[in-house]
Amino acid sequence: MRPKRSSALEVSLLAYTAYLGHTQLGHAVPQSLPAGAARERYLDGVIDTLVHPARPPEKEKEPN
Predict the structure, then answer these.
(1) Mind listing the pLDDT tens digit for each residue in 43-58?
(2) Rounded Cα–Cα distance for residues 35 and 55 (Å)
(3) Measured on CA atoms in the order 14, 18, 19, 23, is the torsion positive or negative?
(4) Cα(13)–Cα(17) distance, rounded to whole angstroms?
(5) What pLDDT score was predicted for residue 23?
(6) Residue 30 belongs to what domain range?
(7) d(Cα 37, Cα 45) in Å, to the nearest integer?
(8) DSSP 8-state code for residue 63
């Protein structure tokens, strides 16, 4: 059984939710977020996760 692929709307909602959450956290508790180079690595990881979500490997088709 193949995993359900997310629609563009679902992915964009997740990305926007992550953005709002990050912004709110930075406003409410700014010391909780990394700074400097660590901030760049953190944001690169967030973007990479949102753009390239992990998917289970697809099973190879068996020959008929």
Answers:
(1) 899 888 887 766 666 6
(2) 30
(3) positive
(4) 6
(5) 93
(6) 20-51
(7) 12
(8) P
Total domains in the chain come to 1
Residue 29 resides in a domain: yes
Cβ atoms of 47 and 18 within 8 Å: the answer is: no
Give the CA dihedral 38, 44, 45, 49, nearest 10 degrees.
Answer: 160
Residue 2, domain member (yes or no)? no
Contacts of range 7-13, beta carbons closer than 8 Å, 24 or more positions apart: 11/50
Is residue 56, in this structure, part of any structural domain at all?
A: no
Q: Which helix H or strand E contains 48, and what residues bound it?
A: helix 36-51
Predicted model pTM: 0.61
